[in-house]
Amino acid sequence: MRVFLLLFLLFPVLELFLLVRVGMSIGFLWTFLLVVATSMLGLFVMRVAGFATALRARESLARGELPAQEMLEGLMVAVGGGLLLLPGFISDILGVICLLPITRRLLINKVRQRAQDQAMRQRAFADDLQTPA
Asked: N or C: which end of the chain has fewer CB within 10 A?
């Protein structure tokens, strides 16, 4: 929890530091235009990719399948687009990582594996509580 709090407090400082450094290198106007362009790109990607993900989820439901993969991809697209909307270059890099299909699937598989591992640990802990000593 403390690590999350530290990252939460440190992230804006790093973003601001990087914005200032980029502004000093390429100038305020170009930095401002880059930030605005990535925000507009984030909006566009959220609209297009979100719509495509919703269509794939609907097709899965029509086939009688649970659209778990589509739902996770939709969530990653929303997170990636949201990160692109934030002003700053670190959030833009993280947003692009969430939006690229290859890295998005890698992240989804990692999250899915971690959730399965945690579920197994909780189940093992619950089984230990139920066995009489």
From this structure: C
